[in-house]
Structure prediction request, 992 residues.
Amino acid sequence: MGKPNDLVQGTLDLLILRTLLPEAMHGWAIAKRIQQISGEVLQVQQGSLYPALHRLEQQGWIKAKWAESETGRQAKFYALTSAGRKQLETETANWQRLSAAINLIVNEA
Amino acid sequence: MRWLAQLRIRIQMLLRGREAARLDDELQFHLDRQVAENVSGGMKPDEAHYAALRTFGNPALLREQTRSNWSWSSFEAILRELRYGFRTLRRTPGFSLIAIIVMALCIGAATSLFTIVRSVLLRPLPFRDPSQLVMVYEHFTNRSDPFPYNIVSPADFHDWRTQTHGFQDMAAWRWDQFNLTGMHGEMPEVVQAAAGSWNLFPLFGVQPAFGRSFSESEDRPGGSAVMLTWSFFERRFSGDPSIVGKQIHLDAKPYTVVGILPREFTYPDAKVQMWVPYGADVTPEFLQYHDHHQSRVLARLKPGVSVANAINQVASVQYHLHLQYPHDPVADGVLPRSITDDLAQDVKTPLIVLMCAVGCMLLIGCLNVANLLVARAAARQKEVAIRSALGAQRFTLISGQLIESFLICIAGGGAGIVLSVAATSWLAHSWKELPSTQPIHIDGTVLAFSCALVFASALLAGLLPAISSTAKAALAILQSSSRTSVGNAARTTLRKTLLGIEITVTVVLLIAAGLLLKSFLRLRSTNIGCVTDNVLTLSYSLPAQKYDKPEKVNAFNETLLERVRAIPGVRGAALGTVLPGAGYESDDVFTIVEHPPVPAGHELPDANNRNVDAGFFSALQIPLLSGRFFTSQDRVGQPAHIIINRELARQYFPGEDPIGKYMRISAHSSLDYEVVGVVGDTLYRANEPVKPAMYFPLLEGESNMGLSLAVHTDANPLAMAIPVQKQIAALDPQLPVNDVLTLDQVIGDSLVNASFSATLVLAFAILSLTLASVGLYGVLSYLMTQRMTEIGVRIALGAQREQVLRLMLFDGLRPALIGLVSGLAASAALTRQIASMLYGTQPLDPMVFVAAAVTLLLVSALACLVPAWRASRLDPIQALRID
Prediction:
């Protein structure tokens, strides 16, 4: 079972960016979405999620806005910026290259 | 650009702080959703809450982690250190103030001097490719005179220019002076001018601001074009460009203004008001002179031709000229010099010496601050040890201590730069020998230099104590009680070493200052050879147009002298071409008719030549040694008579009576002059040795010479200026007068430079001495505190007060003695470098060395005495009770 710390370094950023691609979300929804899509394999814990979100915001890849959530409470919604979209492309490409390489080795050996 | 966006976000975070982030709200929302999910999963509310908290982890830690992303933490750490540093400095205001003042003085002085060095020596001159410009001088290769750069004669220049091909072009200029008379009744004025060959400005690459520069056809005798410098153009013609094309009257002759030079062109100095073509105001014969030197030659290198190559061509031309005129003063060689060095000739060495002195002072300042910080660090050694035991990194500890030294240096540097703005303008105004070709002011480069200096000083002053104080094994310090002084020995050694270096540098400065001061005093007390108190001088020049016959000139001069001597309060009046102490001006070669001719290939002897009136010597109290003075009979048409000075008699009439002998001065006239008198020597410049001199009667009839009138008065000579000028105006209202000064002022001009360097270096040396003694005092006081217990025990066991006093005194004096010895050795090696600035003083002058050593010993003994005395008065009971 993957604990967040076991996530490959830097992968969390990719996951968050990818998750935010279709629409803006708040932290809770991001965690849930990652969990759902990965078929409950990846569980993002708050301890890494929020530092990561704030770091990405610092980098200018995502921007945050307080808005009303689906339950009617105020929540902080994160959305991709154009720089974030570019970053997502780079990181996706990196990831694909890396995982393909790892796959090659794993399958060969 | 991304860092900009990041910075914006960070600043937003900083300004709006936690409120903007609303981190708690965000996390609370997350927690609530988790609880809600747990409840919907079937848990009880309490249970759901705790389960949510469990998965959530430690919220405080999470907050911290998230906040650390805002990245101000390192900045906050620095801020914290800064606050801490401020607080420590405020706790000891005396120390901080002294350290800041020291740094301000050091950095201020360094900044000012660097500003001047940069303008004078480093910044390219405002000409096209100034590095390609060289000055070319005549040089007598077999003469070992102190002045190897001889000015050039017009015909030599002509031959150089036409017969060599190593340079792109060569141009010449010489000093000139005119009486400017107003066209519409304005004040007549004597204007300093220069005469430059037509190609001079193109060679410089200088474009006139208005109009054009000279044409080749204007550069011939009778040419009547003039170019005005910007300052004159603004002053006299209020900057109205319509003056171009109009005429002005110079020496009663009309000249057409063809151009205005740009504002930044102030070569060779700012006093030049206008330029005329080189050949304009001279006779055709003048241009044929090979033995009449007055011009400076400027050449621009051809790309790909080396200076040596180009100069060799000129040298060979000059050598042929020398062979052609074996008896005339035609040099046998040439010598080049870069135009920057040429302009800075008189100030280069003093500037470098001052720069070194300031460097030394800055070093001492830094060492002193370092020394004080070492003492401070000693007091904090426990704190440092505890912090490092608790896991503080060494870097953090060092940076903490560095911050203090940075605060001191930044405060001091800021004050220093403000100080140097004032100091620089004062220096630039009062240091007369600085070339004014470049404006002198503080600019970006200078500021960058000062900032670098501040940074380096802070690093030097802070790093030394910081590293030493954090290098100690924490355990040893924590174990030691404050009674024992573990770990202090090394620090004391460090302080003593710093002190030793300080004192070494101080001794060098003291000795340099002493040498300069002594030579300045020598210079001050130089007897110029005539009366100098209460002497008014002024100069005028009779225009050749109006005074075209010798009789007219003589009539004016004689009447003026007669009237001036009649003014009440005037003891005497002397009129001559050059006054004693007023400069070299001119010389001529001579032969002595009765002596065998000078063998071919040998140069003829030369002597200064001056024309003087009959009462000149008695008015200036120059003694007559033999023969007689001139009389009013020595005038046009009478037998030619000459008076020589003692030096000429000594050198060229050894063991014989010169009276009645005949001298032939080829440049002067074909006449043989009979020597009628020998007078006492006078110096042409206060810091130069005596030169042989020949005096001709003023009434001999050379018409348009510039003349200087010296009036010896009963009291304040300047008060006599107006009555004397009134007499001149009464004789000729059109005649302008200039250089109204006292003879002391005239002579003093050659002292200004010497007094400047001497005073400044002395100031630096005194400051350094003060710093070193403060350092000495500090170290010894510190040592005493450290050894209080030990001394207490000694006294309790029966040590005599005198013994304790001696013990402490010698402990403090040891670094002073070591510093003194190494300082004396360093000075002995270094003072030769300033030999060229010394006058009548040897670089190894024993008196100066002894005086410096004694001063240092006295001051350091005084600095040591106070803490040593305090130690000897220690009450043993109290000392042992401490802790």
About this structure: The longest helix of chain B spans residues 743-786. Residues 151-330 of chain B form one domain.
